[in-house]
Design goal:
40% helix; alpha/beta; TIM Barrel; 8-stranded parallel barrel; 9 helices
Length: 210
């Protein structure tokens, strides 16, 4: 599946939602307008991650939503996800491509223009530019990219860029104005009291709706 709508990616983080029904929460966001789902589970073992990925895949299937697995190429392959998102310290893009094939989506996390250019040159389908602003969802933070850094990155590459890190409905329109193709969020949706309403507000912000 190719991604046509990059505007709003929900990073469905199993650690952030520990003890809650993540597939059910994700489905609420999808019904409210989230256009991409990325499953993140840093602290689950392989069996738990796969079980969750299969549940997510079954729930998302009828909605025709691109489903991306964070970090784990083997999990992405096993649950027949649409692709994988890799960090700078994960499996090399070239090796992931050999395993998954050309039909799957591969995104790469980048923090600098140099990393962005390298990822595009090596065949990434999209970039996750992070952290845009301060966020406590990662323990090993790179320097904040900021709007100016994002703007420069967008000028230097020709593949879609999802910005992530500290983005909410108050600053999402600025992020899009800087050149991002979309935003990726965790707490702005999963930390909200009303997931549907929060998703709708984000979608409104990234769509420049009044």
């Amino acid at each position: 599946m190719k991604i046509k709508n990059w505007k709003l990616c929900l990073v469905a983080d199993a650690d952030f939602t520990a003890g809650k029904d993540l597939p059910a929460l994700t489905l609420k966001a999808v019904k409210a307008g989230a256009s991409i789902i990325q499953l993140r589970a840093k602290n689950l073992d392989a069996g738990e991650f796969l079980d969750l990925a299969l549940r997510m895949s079954n729930i998302l299937g009828p909605h025709n939503i691109p489903f991306i697995i964070n970090d784990k190429v083997d999990i992405a392959q096993a649950c027949k996800a649409d692709g994988v998102h890799l960090g700078q310290k994960d499996m090399p893009l070239s090796q992931a491509r050999k395993i998954l094939g050309n039909d799957k989506i591969i995104g790469i996390s980048v923090n600098t223009v140099e990393e962005a250019i390298k990822a595009e040159t090596e065949g990434a389908d999209y970039l996750g530019a992070s952290p845009l602003f301060y966020t406590d969802s990662k323990k090993d933070l790179d320097p904040e990219l900021g709007l100016k850094g994002l703007q420069e990155m967008c000028k230097q590459v020709n593949i879609p860029i999802l910005a992530i890190g500290g983005i909410n409905s108050s600053n999402a329109s600025e992020v899009m104005a800087a050149g991002a193709d979309g935003i990726a969020v965790i707490s702005a949706i999963l930390g909200a009291d009303d997931i549907s309403l929060s998703t709708q507000r984000l979608l409104k912000a990234v769509s420049n709706l009044s």
